Amino acid sequence: KQEVTQIPAALSVPEGENLVLNCSFTDSAIYNLQWFRQDPGKGLTSLLLIQSSQREQTSGRLNASLDKSSGRSTLYIAASQPGDSATYLCAFCRGSTLGRLYFGRGTQLTVWP
Amino acid sequence: SQTIHQWPATLVQPVGSPLSLECTVEGTSNPNLYWYRQAAGRGLQLLFYSVGIGQISSEVPQNLSASRPQDRQFILSSKKLLLSDSGFYLCAWSVAAGGIDTQYFGPGTRLTVL
Fold it and tell me: What residues of A are in the B interface, CB distance below 8 Å?
């Protein structure tokens, strides 16, 4: 059973477009939700963390929203750039279990110039 | 500032051989430490986590084991590798327990078992 689903699995867009990446999760009792970026063959870099009491978080051109009731989170990327090309992963923490993150399989984003 | 190191970066091992992957964290004390595996076409899977020296919790039964001999050192081991152990292994650390803080990931080790 897949706890976290990310749609689309892959996305290829021209530079400058605004993008929405989707993440859905099956457990409404989440503690927080995080978005990560992974470059090919590299580790993960944390982008945004949204606590369950929050609705959204913003960092630069990135905005992440959280709707616990519907089990969804979206990552909005404004004015995409080729440097944004990477795999984006969402993960949630259930309750207060120790650092246990449940990851989706990611959305592979390619932004071409 | 805090940094996390993993080595080796890549490893090719025959089936049945032993394994030792090392992770160290600098610039913080008493971190929570984690081992994840990312297999082809699958999401990240938590393998082990540790809240302190000698304290290891296992998430998934397997032929892997973990140890934490020092506060900022986390080791992933196997006595006999299987083909299914191939994957990308990531170490991570966090300050706070309970998942209330973000996790910081190392650069990873690419393991290929032949």
Answer: 4, 31-32, 34, 36, 41-46, 49, 51, 89, 91, 93-94, 96-101, 103-106
Divide the 114 residues of chain B into consecutive groups of 10 and give the mean pLDDT of each group.
93 97 94 91 86 87 90 96 95 75 90 96
A59 is written with which tokens? 């960092």
- Give the closest-approach CA distance of A112 to chain B in angstroms: 24
**pLDDT by residue for chain A (113 residues), tens digit each?**
558 999 999 999 999 999 999 999 987 778 889 999 999 888 999 999 998 889 999 999 999 999 988 999 999 999 999 999 999 999 988 765 556 788 999 999 999 99
* Dihedral angle computed from the Cα positions of residues A49, A52, A55 and A56, in that order, rounded to the nearest 10 degrees: 0
- For chain B, the farthest-separated pair of C-alpha atoms sits apart, in whole angstroms, at 39
Phi, psi of B33 (to 5 degrees): -120, 145
The full 3-state SS of chain B, as one line of letters, equals CCEEEEECCEEEECCCCCEEEEEEEECCCCCEEEEEEECCCCCEEEEEEEEECCEEEECCCCCEEEEEEECCEEEEEECCCCHHHCEEEEEEEECCCCCCCCCEECCCEEEEEC
